[in-house]
Amino acid sequence: xxxxxxxxxxxxxxGSVNNAYDYxxxxxxxxxxxxxxxxxxxxxxxxxxxYAAYAFMRTADDFADNEALDINQRLQLLLQWQSKLDACYKxxxxxxxxxxxxxxxxxxxxxxxxFDHLLNAFKVDLFKxxxxxxxxxxxxxxxxxxxxxxxxxxxxxxNGHPEKESFYSATDSICTALQxxxxxxxxxxxxxxxxxxxxQDEMAQFGYSIQDIANKxxxxxxxxxxAFQVQRARDFFLKGKAVLSALNRPERYExxxxxxxxxxxxxxxxxxxxxxxxxxxxxxVFDAVRILYRMITFK
Length: 299
Hints:
It is built from 16 helices and no strands. The protein is mainly alpha-helical. The protein folds into 2 domains: about 1-125, Farnesyl Diphosphate Synthase (Orthogonal Bundle), CATH 1.10.600.10; about 130-299, Farnesyl Diphosphate Synthase. The longest helix is centred in the N-terminal third of the chain and has 22 residues, at about 45-65. Mean pLDDT is about 90; it is low at about 1-10.
């Protein structure tokens, strides 16, 4: 979605809360993602909340990535989005995404900090384009990815669960793994946006450089570097795996699908010898069938 078009559509909105949720659902349905957004495994009365949260995040992400605007213009859009979020949590909303989100955060008890952290991550993307080490990248994931898992748990009704802290810890690991997986499938795409998420010290350790990415060089050094990154992402997936069996049916199937989808992307990265320039891995129809089968037999 182009930022200007989104602003025009939202400012012209006049309708019911149900219309606002329908607007959010269309945003979710019109964007490709590696992983499902509120599939049929999510109870019908909760899907609308996923759509509202996704629409908020997707639109903010589009603002941050809108190359038709300069950095300051993108920042202003994100600051305006922050102001609208602040107003939303005070009960004031005029645009469909925030009308829907206002109802969602009220119904699900979602702390505002989670959305604040996500917006901060989008702002970071405007001004920080290199990560010196993995600790820096991990801190970024704590803002850009982990809040998503916590929002999901709130929507699913786990924010009052006695084991919620262990659930949060597990979903933090899964969300970090998903974020890392996305970074590694988009190494060359991200550089076009003047971003490199590969830790600089590890790139030096494996003898690979940002200039090599710019030159689209796929060599042994790149393959070794990516193999290291892929295994670490897999370790994060495995660290969070235990929560899958602890969740209630049917939503455990949704989260398991996401977990399996992320693991499948890593498998495809390895199968393609990490050549993400010529063969960016995505979850296709045959992968979806494989993932469904694995979910049925999942242990």
